[in-house]
Amino acid sequence: MENNGSILRVVNLQTHFHTDDGIAKAVDGVSFGIPKGKTLGLVGESGCGKSVTALSIMQLVPFPPGKIVGGSVFFKEKDLLKLSEARMRKVRGNEISMVFQEPMTSLNPVFTVGNQIMEVLRLHQKLSRRQARQKTIELLAQVRMPIPEQRIHEYPHQLSGGMKQRVMIAMALACSPAVLIADEPTTALDVTIQAQLLELINELQERLHMSVLLITHDLGVIAETANSVAVMYAGKIVEYTSAENLFASPKHPYTVGLFGSLPKLGKKRGKLAVIPGNVPNPLYFPPGCRFHPRCPHVMDMCREVIPPSAEVAWGHQAACFLYPACRQEAEAA
Amino acid sequence: MESVGENNRLLEVIDLKKHFPVKRGLFSRVQGYVRAVDGISFTIGREETLGLVGESGCGKTTTGRTILRLLEPTAGDVRFEGRSVFAFNKTELRQMRRNMQVVFQDPFGSLNPRMTVGSIVGEPLAVHRVGARRERRERVKELLQKVGLPADAVNRYPHEFSGGQRQRIGIARAVALNPKFVVCDEPVSALDVSIQAQIINLLEELQEDFGLSYLFIAHDLSVVQHVSDRVAVMYLGQIVELGDAEVIYEDPKHPYTVALLSAIPVADPKTKRKRIVLPGDVPSPVNPPRGCRFHTRCKYAKDDCKTEEPKLTDRGGGHFVACFLEESPDELRRAQGEGK
Description:
The structure holds two protein chains of two kinds.
Chain A: E1 6-19, E2 22-35, E3 39-43, H1 50-58, E4 66-75, E5 78-79, H2 85-91, E6 96-99, H3 103-106, H4 113-125, H5 129-142, H6 148-151, H7 161-173, E7 179-183, H8 191-208, E8 211-216, H9 219-225, E9 228-233, E10 236-242, H10 243-248, H11 253-260, H12 300-304, E11 310-313, E12 316-318, H13 324-332
Parallel strand pairs in A: 3-8, 3-9, 6-7, 7-8
Antiparallel strand pairs in A: 1-2, 1-4, 4-5, 9-10, 10-12, 11-12
Chain B: E1 9-24, E2 29-45, E3 49-53, H1 60-67, E4 75-80, E5 83-84, H2 90-97, E6 100-103, H3 117-127, H4 133-146, H5 163-175, E7 181-185, H6 193-210, E8 213-218, H7 221-227, E9 230-235, E10 238-244, H8 245-250, H9 255-263, H10 303-307, E11 313-314, E12 320-321, H11 330-339
Parallel strand pairs in B: 3-8, 3-9, 6-7, 7-8
Antiparallel strand pairs in B: 1-2, 1-4, 4-5, 9-10, 10-12, 11-12
């Protein structure tokens, strides 16, 4: 997975939360890149740090308790983490924008949806009121909102969940961003509405040549939308490769376990393969490989040394001592 | 109706309706009714799992609650072992509840944060005065072990446990009285994939050990298909299709079921298929469309569908469908073939 030519490149990102009980290393050395016009899927279970990764890129991590303590986020070869807040504000929502998981809570209930989209346009593109209104109607039409001229006068509570998420997407697309970060955009929605929205995001991406960082826990959504995939576990990326590679031959025991625990449509009833135990608390990550207490292939080495990420097959990175490449990497370090 | 033999029936739901009044204005005048459940019928056999799927707002949770008489029905009947649940008085109802239990969706909201796990799981035993205090304590330990929780959990509080473990506590409470029937209302939707699989396996083990029947309510078709013997698909308060889990998956007849199946993202990038994207949203259950309730989103809708309501009829082998389409049209079938 070469990072060259990536429009957004995250290098060794570390975001920690300082709490009364200690430091939670929510994101602990995460690196990936998204080429222009492609989709990177970031998968993992709740608490693995995928949303914090997204918030770190946008520099929206609440401080305190959260703080980005290391790494870089290169956007068009500029390090965003070195920008002033004023400069960052010009990037946020303009060149990189974000769609959040909960359409119910991410819209302001006391403003009409038209108002909220117009705000983005007036702020970043300095459009006049009339131009902004015109553009807003166009944007809503683009996300296939029926009768957009009327909808702009409605308040969020008058819209269904799927419609609210369309408004969120319209808002995110308002300034034709180069990168769209979608954090679980369809998780709160029904499958048929999810299908509508995934189709819409795919179509808009092709038309606008956007790069997308799609964050989800649903491997099915990843399979249908992503070009490459990074699997996160306990603050680290454990596997990183193309979507074809990942689904054809997952390498990390965690990824293998995840696939096993999915009930498959059309398969006869039977025991599901299970990953024993629970996701570790970020305050008390186990030493060595963070997956070792749940791993069926655990070795002595795994309990002490954190496995580095290495290329275990062509274009396929994993961080697991089962693979000689990772063992060599660890010895070299 | 149905493929469950007469003497193997545990639960019978007959034309069940539950409408909620919509009140507005100064004097809270009733403006209309939300027809959450609008005439559904099915049976559940002993040691059988019936899956109930549908999108949010289709009435699946209301169905589960009305069956348990946590909500009073508007019309219709539910018979448990041949006796009408709605005819019971308070004492009889309490007796009946020993046999009918529920596992809720939200493992955070359904456990009292001020009670220890021991008293949560032991409460049904105490309420029904099962055994002496010491025996109850033993039974609680046994139950916790059964659902895979450590024995020291007895004296701890719910907040000390993760979502998956809390769901185990809720399950231990539900099976404490050796019920015959458990309503599982989205028991795994709030959990992570790896934990989901653990809970599904646990529910299946308990079913074998205790001979339980489940009404398994969920919106995730792949989970439902995995655990269920038969599946009922709900749309706007009515059942549109009901049959063996495999048949529903292999040969869905109702256009809504077909669309629902095709909308599930498949974890395999090589299956390129035509997803059927349903236009629009689910209509409001206050004013459901006339005729077939699905006609506003159905691409096969004909004039008949707009005026007449299709009845749920047997298409052979206990496969019930409520649709005027005689058989799956070619297009339907092709979409299905690609969907696999």
